[in-house]
Amino acid sequence: MLKALVPPGLGKALAEHIPTELLEKKVNAVSQEERKSIGRILKGLPLTVTGTMGYDWAVVCDGGVDMTEIDTRTMASRLFPNLFIVGDLLHISRPSGGFSLQLCWTSGRIAGENA
Ligand SMILES: Cc1cc2nc3c(=O)[nH]c(=O)nc-3n(C[C@H](O)[C@H](O)[C@H](O)COP(=O)(O)OP(=O)(O)OC[C@H]3O[C@@H](n4cnc5c(N)ncnc54)[C@H](O)[C@@H]3O)c2cc1C
User: Fold this and answer.
1) Most buried residue, 5, 6, 111, 113, by most Cβ within 10 Å?
2) What contacts 114, CB < 8 A, 6 or more positions away?
3) Is the separation of the CB atoms in 3 and 23 below 8 Å?
4) CA of 100 to the centre of ligand 1 (A)
5) Please, where are the H alpha helices in the chain?
6) What are 77's strand-pairing partners?
7) pTM for this one?
8) Number of H helices, E strands in the chain
9) How many CB atoms are closer than 10 A to CB 68?
10) What's the CA gap between 77 and 51, in Å, rounded?
């Protein structure tokens, strides 16, 4: 079942944290407490970053309107009244990994509340 729920590599790593006798049980024989313990293992698995995937896989977002030109309390341009600048248009260098989405949602909300 674990194989169907998580990617194979992760399943292998998780299996090392789950007692063998529990791994070998049929799903309908697993007790509520055992299910909960598997949940705790799934949520609490310690993951240590050991490196990057190298330059060929590196992604970064860069360029845009200089932040000194933006009032970040409202996301309004300091140069053009009533112009609100958000998301990818801002010059905030960032790696990939959700930072761009967080940036567009957060700045978009601030602009939306102040425009
Ligand atoms: C393939 C891909 C994968 C990505 N994966 C991730 C990821 O995993 N995590 C992450 O954090 N970021 C990711 N990003 C980046 C992230 O999607 C963007 O940073 C984010 O969507 C930018 O939001 P935005 O609102 O600034 O711009 P956009 O989402 O580009 O929105 C701009 C909008 O303006 C509209 N528009 C353009 N010109 C006009 C016009 N003249 N009049 C009216 N409307 C107009 C466009 O149609 C568009 O809907 C990914 C981007 C791509 C392309």
Assistant:
1) 111
2) 73, 74, 75, 76, 84
3) no
4) 9
5) 2-5, 8-15, 20-23, 32-44, 99-114
6) 70
7) 0.68
8) 5, 4
9) 7
10) 39
Burial of 93 (0-12, 13-18, 19+ CB in 10 A): exposed
**Nearest ligand 1 atom to alpha carbon 102:** 11
Distance in angstroms (rounded) separating the CA atoms of residues 37 and 20 = 13
Mean pLDDT per 10-residue segment, the chain (115 residues): 83 87 92 93 87 87 95 98 96 90 97 97
- Residues contacting 81, CB < 8 A, separation 6+: none
Q: Would you state the structure tokens that stand for residue 46, as one six-digit string?
A: 């310690």
> Tell me, what DSSP letter sits at residue 61?
E
Quote the tokens at residue 104: 């567009």
